[in-house]
Amino acid sequence: MNWVDLMFLNIVSFGGAWSIIYALVYAPYYGGDPAVSLLLTAPGILCLLGVYYIFNTSMPRSGGDYVYTSRVLHPAIGFAANFIGYAIFLWFWIGDAASVFTSNGLYQTLSVYGSLTHASWTSSLYSIFGASANNFIIGAIALLIFAGIVIAGPRLYFRIQNVLMTIAVISLVVIIVLLLVALANPAAFQSHFNSYAISVGAKLTPNAYQNLTASGATNGTTDSPLNWQGDFLLIPLWFTVLFWVFVSSYLGGETKQVNSTAKRALFGSFLIIFVATLAILEIAYYALGYNFLIGAANVYYAGTGVLGAPPNLTLFAGILANNAPLVLFLGIGIISGFMLVAPQSMILMSRMLFAYSFDRVAPSWLSDVNPRFSTPVKAVIVALVGALVMLAFLSGLVGGVGSSFQSTALALYTWAGLAAIALTFTFVSISGILFPYTRKSLYEASCTVKRKIAGIPVITWLGMVSLVYCLATIIWYTYDQTFYLFACPAGGVTSCDYNYYLVAIVVLFFGAIAYYYGIRSYRISKGVPFNLAFSEIPPE
Question: Domain range spanning residue 379?
Answer without folding.
Answer: 3-535
